[in-house]
Amino acid sequence: MSIPMIIDTDPGIDDAQAISIALNHPELDVKMISTVYGNVSIQNTTANTLKLKGFFKSDVPVHRGSSHPYLSTLIDAQDVHGASGMDGHEFEEVDQNDLASQNSILAMYETIKAHEDPITIIAIGPLTNIALLLQTFGDISDHIKEIILMGGSIVGGNVTPYAEFNIYSDPEASQIVFKSGLPITMVGLDVAYNSMLNQEDLKELQRMGKTGEMLFNLLSRYRSDDFDKGVKIYDVYTLIYLLHPELFEVAEAYIEVEYRDETYKGQTFVDEKSKYPNATVVKDIDKEAFKSHFFKALIHCP
């Protein structure tokens, strides 16, 4: 039986890999995709999601979400992902009629409430939409199975020395989510830094049909890494964890997000010794096991 899920995303090159797997894997049942600002503007993240929907000829509804953070100043990652967020591949022109609505928070609520079983949320962008969902609809928590998010870290950051980009983009919203009492799994920088795709992996990806070529083209424009040495891919780990949690080293921990102190803004304080954990933290995965399951997941893509 496939896993019912919602994706909240800000494509973004690494988001494209996760969406590609989610829309094609037989064990995953994507009920809707919610877009959020983040790597680039909400206009571009929404357009990029529609490009991927068109690429796969998917009928999964796409809903536009938040254009700015809860309280913080809006930032983006164009220096990493390029001006459009998905430079490097020529997609067909977006059909704006494919956008299901301009209110992904309401759409998430209606989708979750309409489903008989609790739904998993895969959050691979800033957590603004998720925080607004939880704060706007007080009766929704019982209908959410878990939230698996890409964000945060145990040690260090990638946008400041202390903070990871998704959490830094909206630390107030992130704190709301971690304080929600829902089952949460944090897939942070720690696991991604330990299992990069090297040049041989990228060549294998390029040979994997039209999806592999598309993803290779996007990754070749990924400006945060030295492409000759390999690339870090972040968001895919949430789906590999959902499908194969036994592959990962995890710990239960209490997590707080700093949102008051500007120096440490967005830092995730992870206490593995707490008697009151509020999240599961993914710490590591065997590099070869990850690569094997990543490529196996892509086999389902055209």
From TrEMBL:
Keywords: Glycosidase, Hydrolase. Pfam families: IU_nuc_hydro. The keyword Electron transport does not apply. One of its GO terms (biological process) is purine nucleoside catabolic process. InterPro entries: Inosine/uridine_hydrolase_dom, IUNH, Ribo_hydro-like. GO terms for molecular function: purine nucleosidase activity. Gene3D superfamilies: Ribonucleoside hydrolase-like (3.90.245.10). GO terms for cellular component: cytosol. Residues 5-291 form the Inosine/uridine-preferring nucleoside hydrolase domain. NCBIfam families: PRK10768.1 (NF008036). This is Ribonucleoside hydrolase RihC. It comes from Staphylococcus massiliensis S46. The lineage of its organism: Bacteria, Bacillati, Bacillota, Bacilli, Bacillales.
